[in-house]
Amino acid sequence: MTQTAKNYSLEELNLETTFGGIGKTKHRDVPQIDLGDFEKRKAEIADQLWKASTEIGFFQLVNHGIPQQQIDEAFEMTERFFALSHETKAKYPLGKGTNAGWEYKSQVRPSTGTADNKESYQITPTRMAKLWPSGEELPGFKAAMLAFERANWAVGMKVLSCFALKLGFAPDFFTEAHDPLAPDYQSTLRLLHYLPMTNAKPEDYTGWRAGAHTDYDCLTLLHQRPGQGGLQLCPGKEASELEWTDVEPLPGVITCNIGDMLKRWSDDQLLSTLHRVRMPRDDEYLGPRYSLPFFCQANMNAIVQGPKKIYPPITAHDYLQQRIAANFAG
Ligand SMILES: O=C(O)CCC(=O)C(=O)O
Ligand SMILES: [Fe+2]
């Protein structure tokens, strides 16, 4: 594996170039947080979210309100999308810096310098002109995915309203900053297909399904399928040898993590935790792995600045562009 010697423009990125190694593993508990009876229990839920996000940067939501049937349908549609021919998917290519469209093994993480062993299709609803597969190619896909996108948005906004409470912002501060009806909306639903490792050659195991990174959004909501593990997290970037924790995909939960944008917006109080997706070991399930992250990314014109103003203000657009430019080849 070669290490990129690029000089990235944000401090987080320079740090990320040093995280490519395998490291050790360590068991840690990822807190589960129940969103049931949300309005009544909001203060208690906000305390739990704050604790998890200042201590480990990850938590799993239960009773989040998205019906399991809708999650299963989104996964079924995702499998159908990736089963389309290469030529069909290539009609809907990822545009540079847009988080919209399909890419195949093109995401190079600063941590590893090699392409992730995956393909993805990203849905940023405001940028999807000519990027949806046709109704003949994939009937029902657009309606199912747009509904799923909005269901995730709604859960994300509930969680963010708790952080607004804790940070002293108005209750809907982040909901307004992620307004889906504004033309500068840029939250993204990502469909991921990690390639199967059945009949893989030993050299195929040297890479990563997704190299170590922090997310660049405010909050990520990740849907995983039981039996398709591999996600690992590592709080604390300062240790000389990193200790990684497996996050088991449990049925019915949404695994969430804080991203760099909310870390900055909270004046570094909330942790944006390093994570990655490792290759399966040869005694584990070797088939394809699908996952569905939804990235709450504040609208392009939103100004990111915490209540203590420890960082200068930056638009969410400028912030994201610096991160995207460093992650996709070409
Ligand atoms: O697929 C996963 O489990 C995690 C994906 C991820 O971390 C990402 O896309 O940012
Ligand atoms: Fe991630």
UniProtKB/TrEMBL annotation:
Cofactor(s) demanded: Fe(2+)
A Pfam family matched in the record: 2OG-FeII_Oxy
Keywords: Ethylene biosynthesis, Iron, Metal-binding, Oxidoreductase
Domain of life of the native organism: Bacteria
GO molecular function list: 2-oxoglutarate oxygenase/decarboxylase (ethylene-forming) activity; metal ion binding
GO biological-process terms attached to the record: ethylene biosynthetic process
InterPro entries: DIOX_N, IPNS-like_FE2OG_OXY, IPNS-like_sf, Iron_ascorbate_oxido_reductase, Oxoglu/Fe-dep_dioxygenase_dom
Leading EC class: oxidoreductase
Entry EC no(s): 1.13.12.19, 1.14.20.7
Domain Fe2OG dioxygenase as annotated: residue spans: 184-298
Catalytic function, reaction form: L-arginine + 2-oxoglutarate + O2 = guanidine + L-glutamate 5-semialdehyde + succinate + CO2; 2-oxoglutarate + O2 + 2 H(+) = ethene + 3 CO2 + H2O
Family the UniProt entry places it in: Belongs to the iron/ascorbate-dependent oxidoreductase family.
PANTHER family per record: 2-OXOGLUTARATE (2OG) AND FE(II)-DEPENDENT OXYGENASE SUPERFAMILY PROTEIN-RELATED (PTHR47990)
Protein name (Swiss-Prot/TrEMBL): 2-oxoglutarate-dependent ethylene/succinate-forming enzyme
